[in-house]
Write a structure and sequence with these properties.
It contains 15 helices and 23 strands. With 515 residues, it is α/β, with parallel strands linked by helices. The chain folds into two domains: 295 residues, Aldehyde Dehydrogenase, Chain A, domain 1; 186 residues, 3-Layer(aba) Sandwich (Aldehyde Dehydrogenase, Chain A, domain 2), CATH 3.40.309.10. A seven-stranded mixed sheet has the order 17-18-19-16-15-20-21, with helices on both faces.
Length: 515
């Protein structure tokens, strides 16, 4: 395995067998949870193993947290809450900026850890995610001065103003596909707004999140940020149901998001949910060009093994360009290299774990059995050779005229793209909207008026025109329908998700005092 720097990764306990120059040649990372400023094992003393999915080998182990650990972390967050909320917002922002500086300095170290535990390729994915984490803390740190209210003109005899106040203890849960990026989007705005936080990391990819927690802890009072590790049913569910949690922020599947909402409903706790997607990519006939083909590949998130809720996995191609566009798409897709995530030559890494790998293969098998579906490239992964050593899936494209079969409706969360022809613009929009999801969408056309008309008609929280890149800080991001509630990544997202508005009215026309 490519070496990982030991510096900064020794949260508590043995980081492995140190080699020359302070590296861990085949690092087996033993990590603990951050609770109240201390690194602790689970109350049960149980652990869970973190796997390197590209090698099917154990990478490390973390505590298997449970209800007792949740109680301890929430108590620590509660004890730190009042003092942290009283700190001036700009000073909280300075703490976030200091965290950003360290994260930027150590981003290569963080990137290699991300690549090792997620299987995401270092060059095409993990380095960008590590850079993003530093940018998130810097962005929200700079917004601390915007945590302000307004005055309302209700007449000369009345002073009416509002305050933006922290909600309290935030419970946050993040998934494994972009763990560091998503953890930063919970931590930075929550603490900048004056809240304290208990975050549950994904059991498949907790190591990078714990490294971020270590850096945060060096710049924050104990208990402001607490990070737990464990399974969803044993650790995440007790966190969502804890009576002292005042806000829940969750990124993950729609099914689990619904369970989070049910847990929150009993206590009328506000929730922010960024959930699944089955995003459409609509290509008009004037976009039968390489730039659009490359954009569709980017939108499908093939270089993240399409393990993304914004993956443009339904490709609606105009019938006049259906075959030539797909020919170009297949050619470019086949040129991408699949392999070791830590190799700089690799474009596409591995699926996260055996369970997800088996699920993706199951969808491909369904496509191969369907008479109406035509396999254009990919298929089932090899059972022998280098790719069989990890959970490597082959980018796969099926052509089919139907938008109603399983592969065109369900979120696969793997590199399986369904291409569907259309002729009428209204038909394309109808098919795009015929989904219970509504997270992202992509439109491709040189006719900007046509493209914007389509973008306005598509039911999605985020639509890109003639580009397929990732989210940008500063834009409100989130879904509609069963793809979520609330917005992230922006000033509006921080204010709406992590503060409450208090209105204060002052009577300025008191009667004269009695003598």
């Amino acid at each position: 395995m490519t070496t990982l720097h030991r510096e900064g990764l020794s949260l508590d306990g043995d980081a492995g067998r140190p080699g020359a120059a302070g590296t861990v040649p085949s690092g087996y990372f033993r990590r603990k949870m951050l609770i109240g400023g201390e690194w602790l094992d689970a109350a049960s003393a149980q652990t869970l193993v973190v796997e390197n999915p590209a090698r099917k080998q154990a990478l490390g182990e973390v505590p298997r947290g449970g209800t007792d650990d949740v109680d301890l972390a929430v108590a620590a967050a509660g004890a730190a809450g009042a003092a942290w909320a009283r700190i001036p917002p700009r000073d909280r922002g300075r703490a976030c900026l200091a965290i950003a500086e360290v994260l930027e300095h150590r981003q290569e170290e963080l990137a290699r850890l991300i690549a090792s535990e997620t299987g995401n390729a270092l060059r095409t994915q993990a380095r960008g995610e590590a850079k993003w984490v530093a940018d998130v803390f810097r962005y929200f740190g700079g917004l601390a001065g915007e945590l302000k209210g307004i005055t309302v003109p209700l007449g000369e005899a009345m002073l009416s103003y509002t305050r933006r106040e922290p909600i309290g203890i935030v419970g946050a849960i993040v998934p494994w596909n972009a763990p560091a990026q998503l953890a930063s989007l919970k931590i930075a705005p929550a603490i900048c707004a004056g809240n304290t936080l208990v975050l549950k990391a994904a059991e498949d990819a907790p190591l990078a999140v714990l490294m971020i927690a270590e850096i945060c802890q060096a710049h924050l009072p104990p208990g402001v940020v607490n990070v737990l590790t464990g399974y969803g049913a044993e650790c995440g569910a007790p966190l969502a149901a804890h009576p002292q949690i005042r806000k829940l922020s969750f990124t993950g599947s729609t099914a689990v998001g619904k369970a989070i909402m049910r847990a929150a409903a009993d206590r009328v706790v506000p929730v922010s949910l960024e959930l699944g997607g089955k995003s459409p990519s609509i290509v008009f006939p004037d976009a039968d060009e390489d730039w659009a083909v490359e954009g569709v590949i980017a939108a499908m998130r093939f270089t993240r093994q399409s393990q993304s809720c914004t993956a443009g996995s339904r490709l609606f191609l105009h019938a006049d360009i259906f075959e030539p566009f797909l020919d170009k798409l297949v050619t470019k897709l086949k040129a991408l290299k699949i392999g070791d995530p830590l190799d700089d030559a690799t474009d596409i890494g591995s699926i996260i774990n055996e369970r997800q790998f088996t699920k993706v293969c199951g969808y491909i098998e369904d496509g191969l059995r369907r008479r109406e579906a035509r396999l254009l490239t990919g298929g089932l992964p090899p059972r022998e050779g280098p790719l069989a050593m990890g959970y490597f899936a082959i980018p796969t494209i099926f052509a089919d005229a139907s938008n109603d079969w399983r592969l065109a409706r369900e979120e696969i969360f793997g590199p399986v793209l369904i291409a569907i022809p259309w002729r009428d613009e209204a038909e394309a929009v109808r098919m795009a909207n015929a989904s219970h999801y509504g997270l992202a969408a992509y439109v491709w056309s040189r006719d900007i008026g046509q493209a914007l008309r389509t973008a306005h008609a598509v039911e999605a929280g985020w639509v890109q025109v003639n580009q397929g890149g990732g989210q940008l800080l500063g834009q409100p991001y989130g879904g509609v329908k069963e793809s979520g509630i609330g917005r992230e990544m922006s000033l509006e997202g921080m204010l709406d998700s992590f503060t409450e508005t208090k209105t204060i009215n002052v009577n300025m026309a008191l009667p004269p005092p009695l003598h």
